[in-house]
Prior knowledge:
Elements: E1 3-12, H1 18-35, E2 38-44, E3 47-55, H2 56-67, E4 72-82, E5 94-97, H3 103-108, H4 122-136
Parallel strand pairs: 2-5
Antiparallel strand pairs: 1-3, 1-4, 2-3
The structure holds flavin mononucleotide.
Flavin mononucleotide binds next to helix 1, strand 2, strand 3 and helix 2.
Amino acid sequence: MNLVRLIYASTLSDDTTFDDMQNVTASARKNNKQNGITGFLTISHAYALQILEGDRGIVSSVYNKIAKDTRHRNLTLLCMTPITQRKFDRWEMEYCEINDRHSDLIFMHGSSRHFNPYNLSAENALSLLSELHDQFAPATTSPSAGTTG
Ligand SMILES: Cc1cc2nc3c(=O)[nH]c(=O)nc-3n(C[C@H](O)[C@H](O)[C@H](O)COP(=O)(O)O)c2cc1C
């Protein structure tokens, strides 16, 4: 398997609701499990930042599908990097909302207290997501080990 990590930023469409995001997460979990993809999705007000890890060909085609989804727009690829090991291997897709409580963390991994994923370098996006992932989904409480590559 040619394992890769892909990170992108996007803007939620004005009419995208909380229920829409619940549906997104449900279909992402089902599809990603079938596709051997693991990852993490963070949302803050208007913005989304998502990481996908898995086989290069599959990650590319899932990204192309996600890019056509009208529930968000202005997708910007922050990186697609070959990796030897997954960092986000515990969840097919976990979802976390970023809010004011995370402002110190956002500041630590970016330049401002306001979450704007378009301003993040790939390195900062990865470190922010890793920390949120660890806080949100500690290894000991994980319900599934995901598929490691
Ligand atoms: C922000 C966002 C993230 C998404 N992430 C995923 C994902 O990780 N995997 C996935 O299969 N679909 C994801 N989707 C949904 C896809 O765009 C698409 O609706 C879904 O894969 C279609 O699934 P279905 O063919 O089972 O109906 C995402 C959509 C949005 C708006």
